[in-house]
Amino acid sequence: MTKKKPVFDYLLCVSCGICAQACPVSAIGMMKEGKSGKYRNLFPELVKDNCIGCGRCADSCPMDVIRMEEADSES
Question: Where in the chain are the domains?
């Protein structure tokens, strides 16, 4: 079976963090984006080595902005 990984559409993400909460292995963290310590939003960031490709993040996303794609064999 080919391992899959989540791919995020950051333009449509509402920064709710549900995907990070749904991940059973903590492979998704919420990264900060902004300047001078003043953050506007937090976006999901994948820790590739921790991801098991289960798809729970994609299934839990209320905005349907996560799709599962085949993982690169070299990463």
Answer: 4-68
User: pLDDT for 8-60, tens place per residue?
Assistant: 998 899 889 999 999 999 999 998 765 555 556 788 999 989 999 999 999 99
Residue whose tokens read 């300047």: 35
Q: Cβ atoms within 10 A of the Cβ of 7, count?
A: 12
pLDDT band at 68 (very low <50, low <70, confident <90, very high): very high
Q: Under the phi-then-psi rule, with left for phi > 0, alpha for psi from -120 to 50, and beta for the rest, what region is 10?
A: alpha
How far is residue 27 from each of residues 23, 33, 36, 37, 40, measured CA to CA in Å? 6, 19, 27, 24, 23
4-68 under CATH 3.30.70.20, yes or no: yes
